[in-house]
Specification:
heterodimer, A: 126 residues, mainly alpha, two-stranded antiparallel sheet, 5 helices, B: 259 residues, alpha+beta, Alpha-Beta Plaits, 3-stranded mixed beta sheet, 10 strands
């Protein structure tokens, strides 16, 4: 009985302390040292191009994406229908979430791109 | 046996938690997430507008502390090879004599000689490595960062010969075999490419400061825009005497030291 009282006292006390701590932390909000990127609506329910053209041209799209995002810093792709996508492998894989999406075709066609030498493949991510 | 299972369980849990964090920060999209608003830079950045720089206050840096090194190497999946030849380093510590071999001061105090000094890529204005690279795999970015495009690196190691600071390491082996604590925040490299510090360009694009700075408990680092006269780093450069590594070479490093 005594023990459980002690337990509750400590729990409530620590909650109050935590709350106070957070209050004070919000007070001392600093100006960010590194500018935060603006929010851009990214709609991953649409495809960036019709499936046929992606099937034929996804490698060129990926090549353009990696060059423009790595080398010129332009990170947003605007599709023909005006929707916007972040130029990232995660954009593709976020929608095509079947872990074998890339591998099925590539294994059939015996194509061995080197993406997963460095990037984490969908098979390696949890 | 029991222990082995426990290890596996902990590993898997840790990975799951990591993925959760990744999804929360928009890094690894949560699968079957439909509409998201990601923070993304919508325009092509203006070249030369920003010049990122770093100031290291060596007075505050504890000699045997390796927190920033560990944090950086974990975040960027830098492999940990035991042998000197295979060693990969993005940020490391060394003595005054090794970090400032051409400093002309004659009677250096024993305090300074006993300190350890952090070294990383200097992100020089006039970077010799970018001139040596035959494929433009290493190049000067719009924001002053000397970046590596690992897609283009052919592993010729001209840049390693050109860099006067030893900031570059070559992957003689497959680095994935030596990453014991993988991070989902950044890709790994592959065998046969050169790698180095990227000034946390992967974090800057998310509006975060470099990993070493964030990990440091002593506030050794100051990071900011050297082109902005009002930035913290410029204020400090204005008020304190600073040093650079091998300034006589004219590479104009973006990393400064308070001795």
């Amino acid at each position: 009985m005594k023990n459980s009282k002690l337990f509750w006292t400590i729990t409530i006390f620590s909650f109050v302390l935590f709350g106070l701590f957070n209050l004070f932390r919000q007070g001392e909000a600093e100006t960010p040292k590194v500018p935060a990127p603006p929010q851009v609506a990214i709609d991953s329910t649409k495809c960036i191009a019709p499936a046929d053209s992606m099937r034929a041209n996804h490698m060129q799209v990926l090549y353009k994406w990696r060059n423009s995002s790595v080398r010129t810093g332009h990170r947003v792709h605007v599709a023909a229908n005006g929707s916007r996508f972040e130029k990232s492998l995660n954009t593709c894989l976020g929608c095509h979430d079947n872990k074998l999406f890339c591998f099925n075709c590539h294994m059939y066609a015996n194509v061995k791109p080197k993406c997963w030498n460095c990037h984490l493949s969908p098979m390696e991510t949890p | 046996m029991m222990n082995q299972q426990r290890r596996e369980f902990i590993k898997k849990t840790a990975f799951g938690v990591l993925a959760g964090f990744g999804a929360a920060s928009g890094l690894v999209p949560a699968f079957s997430l439909e509409k998201t608003i990601l923070p993304v830079w919508d325009e092509t950045p203006v070249s030369g507008k920003i010049r990122w720089g770093m100031l290291i206050d060596t007075r505050k840096c504890k000699k045997d502390c390796q927190i920033c090194v560990t944090a950086c190497h974990h975040e960027h999946n830098v492999p940990h090879f035991k042998t000197r030849k295979d060693e990969i380093k993005w940020i490391w510590k060394n003595s005054y004599k090794n970090i400032f071999p051409t400093a002309t001061d004659q009677f250096v105090t024993s305090d300074v000689l006993n300190r350890s000094f952090l070294a990383l890529c200097n992100h020089c204005v006039d970077a010799p490595c970018t001139r040596a690279c035959p494929t433009e795999a290493t190049f000067k970015r719009w924001d002053g960062i000397v970046a590596m495009d690992y897609h283009r690196c052919i592993g010729c190691r001209f840049c390693m010969a050109a860099c006067p600071y030893g900031s570059r390491s070559f992957n003689w082996q497959d680095p994935r075999t030596a990453i014991h604590d993988p991070s989902l925040a950044y890709p790994t490299r592959q065998q046969g490419v050169v790698e180095k510090c990227n000034f946390c360009s992967d974090r800057l694009v998310r509006g975060l400061q470099p990993a070493c700075l964030e990990a440091c408990p002593e506030q050794v680092f100051t990071f900011g825009d050297l082109n902005d006269p009002q930035s913290d780093i410029r204020m400090l450069l204005e008020t304190t005497v600073t040093m650079q590594r091998k300034p006589e070479l004219g590479t104009k490093p973006s990393v400064f030291y308070i001795i």
